Amino acid sequence: MRAAIVAAALEQLAEVGADALSLRGVARQVGMASSAIYRHVPNRDALLTLLIIEGYDALGTAVEEREATCVRSDRVGRFRATCHAARTWAQANPHHWALLYGSPVPGYAAPEETVGPAIRVSAVMAGILRDGKAATSTAGVDPEGILDPAVLTTLLMGVDPSTARAGVLAWVTVYGVISFELFGHLIGSVVDVDGFFEATLATLADGLALSDPATNG
User: Fold this and answer.
1) φ, ψ of residue 20 in degrees (nearest 5)
2) Nearest Cα to 102, choosing from 48, 42, 22?
């Protein structure tokens, strides 16, 4: 029943958007009395939370599985695989991506339970950075105070602050390019979207100094 509710809600999400998502509409779609759906999902916010967690977990799984096929010493390959997996998932699930990374739904505040699923992709990227950067005496402290200290003591523990900032920039850039592509904002500026994405990844990989001369040439 959970799977049926999620599937119906995703169809409704594509048709009317997150703002108009309705438990009654989902109930009708799965052939359930409107009163019965409340036994599975108590309110609209709970339904949104369910969809958000499902989305983050599906995206996280896609990225983790793709990155796991790479040679561990090939950090450029792992980075590219991670980014391509995220883009492929977004292209296949544009409305779900929009729910995760588009405009906030008015009146909805994501609960703590969404945090774990939300950082799965970031954790993969952090692992790629961490594998190439030994911990330094400044790890966990950002002298310029740009990053949230909690990020440097958890997700990016052991990564020096300058590399951590570059990693956050890379993550934001990749997700920004994916969103611009999905929402049509590259039209009129970019004629080869695939080529633009590849060039973006190459620039970011260079900026992150991911290449190891001994393994990647």
Assistant:
1) -100, 10
2) 48
What are the helix (H) ranges across the chain? 2-16, 23-29, 44-68, 75-92, 94-101, 115-118, 120-132, 149-153, 161-182, 193-208, 213-216
- Are 63 and 73 in contact, with CB atoms under 8 Å apart? no
State the average pLDDT over residues 172-201.
98
pLDDT band per the 50, 70, 90 thresholds, residue 36 = confident
Pick one of 2.30.30, 3.40.50, 1.10.860, 1.10.10 as the CATH number of 1-42. 1.10.10
Q: What is the mean pLDDT of the chain?
A: 90
Q: Which residue matches tokens 């973006």?
A: 200
What is the C-alpha to C-alpha distance for residues 146 and 52, in angstroms, rounded to an integer? 28
Which residues are CB-contacts of 32 (< 8 A; sequence separation ≥ 6)? none
Written out in words, the top-level CATH class of the domain with range 56-216 is mainly alpha
Instruction: Give this prediction's pTM.
Output: 0.90
Mean pLDDT of 133-154: 74
Cα angle, residue 187 at apex, residues 181 and 192 outer, rounded to 5°: 75
Give the model's confidence band at 153: pLDDT under 50 very low, under 70 low, under 90 confident, else very high.
Answer: confident
